[in-house]
Specification:
The protein is mainly alpha-helical and 339 residues long. It is built from 14 helices and no strands.
Length: 339
């Protein structure tokens, strides 16, 4: 399909259907989550309140208490998924996720440093998470750079950096007093509890800037999956494109971690699941973003409803499910002879 401005756009019918179905599932789960809690609301009441037809009590509960949490889940899930898709495509490795190659640990070190060393508030912790992720991303890029950034070298350097940063995390927790250690442990679990509009607006601003930038680089990213030489031959400015995408991936991850803590394995699994559903080559960025949002919303529903009165942080659920997916992925890669 060619737009009036001359821009050629290719729309895959299967991918479009998958995106619509995932978006519908995410929207339905979001409405169900908003209607759940100590003051239950029906599906119709939630939709009516969102459209401005609710009672004052419903307006307060939906718009001020529950809607911000759901929006944070949507934005965090999409951000983590896009970050994972970027790193997996650049490394040309399904294990090249920010969960594995150190960027998530960098954000955690930044946040924990603020908690343990300065006893900073929520805003300072969020700033520390972003700063830690950005510094780690720059360090991994520099260490992996040798006439370009090779995918395997990026993964290996990232795994080494992740190991060192994990040791730093343990050290910070052991040096903290009881109150700060408890606060740090709760933050590292990853949770959507207590999220409000103060987390929504920064995330929304970040996504409004970075998502169009990344989507516009979807074709160059697909070319980079074929290797640097092929991308050069097809006219892609390889290193500039890689730097833009790496920076975007790091900022997606850091912003999501700042808003909800280090929620594990959404970045690893969302892109791979989107590829399998669409059966389309390339990073499938739109499908990946919607898949990440839907995954995190479903995980949040499981965390708050599947265990009776025991409410779990959403990071626990994604960690268990993602760990199972990682084992399956490792078995698949081993059978294929790639590891």
């Amino acid at each position: 399909m060619r737009t009036p401005g001359g821009l050629s756009v290719r729309v895959d019918p299967r991918s479009a259907v998958v995106v619509l179905l995932l978006a519908a599932a995410a929207a339905a789960t979001a409405v169900i989550l908003i209607g759940s809690g100590d003051f239950p609301m029906s599906f119709g009441d939630v939709v009516g309140t969102l459209l401005g037809n609710g009672t004052p009590a419903q307006e307060l509960i939906v718009r001020q208490l529950r809607l911000p949490r759901v929006l944070v889940a949507l934005l965090v899930g999409a951000s983590l998924a896009l970050s994972g898709a970027i790193f997996q495509s650049l490394s040309r490795n399904p294990l090249g996720s920010p969960d594995v190659i150190g960027f998530g640990q960098g954000s955690a070190v930044g946040a924990l440093s603020v908690i343990v060393l300065t006893q900073g508030g929520a805003l300072a912790v969020a700033g520390g998470a972003v700063a830690g992720g950005v510094v780690t991303g720059a360090a991994v890029y520099v260490l992996a750079f040798r006439r370009g950034v090779h995918g395997l070298r990026l993964v290996l350097v990232g795994i080494g950096v992740a190991s060192m940063l994990t040791a730093v995390i343990h050290y910070l927790v052991t040096k903290a007093n009881l109150v700060d250690a408890t606060r740090a442990t709760l933050w590292m679990t990853g949770s959507l509890d207590g999220r409000d509009w103060a987390q929504v607006w920064p995330l929304l601003g970040m996504c409004a800037v970075l998502m169009p930038l990344v989507f516009l680089h979807g074709r160059p990213l697909r070319m980079l999956e074929m290797g640097d030489d092929a991308a050069y031959a097809l006219g892609v400015p390889v290193e500039r494109t890689r730097v833009v995408l790496l920076a975007s991936g790091v900022l997606f991850l850091s912003g999501a971690t700042a808003a909800a803590g280090p929620i594990a394995f959404v970045a690893l699994s969302a892109s791979q699941l989107a590829r399998r559903l669409t059966r389309s080559p390339g990073p499938n960025l739109v499908a990946t973003a919607v898949m990440g949002a839907a995954l995190l919303l479903v995980a949040d529903w499981v965390a708050t409803h599947a265990f009776g009165d025991s409410l779990l942080p959403v990071g626990v659920v994604t960690g268990v499910l993602g760990g199972c997916y990682l084992l399956r992925l490792l078995v698949t890669e081993r059978r294929a002879g790639r590891i």
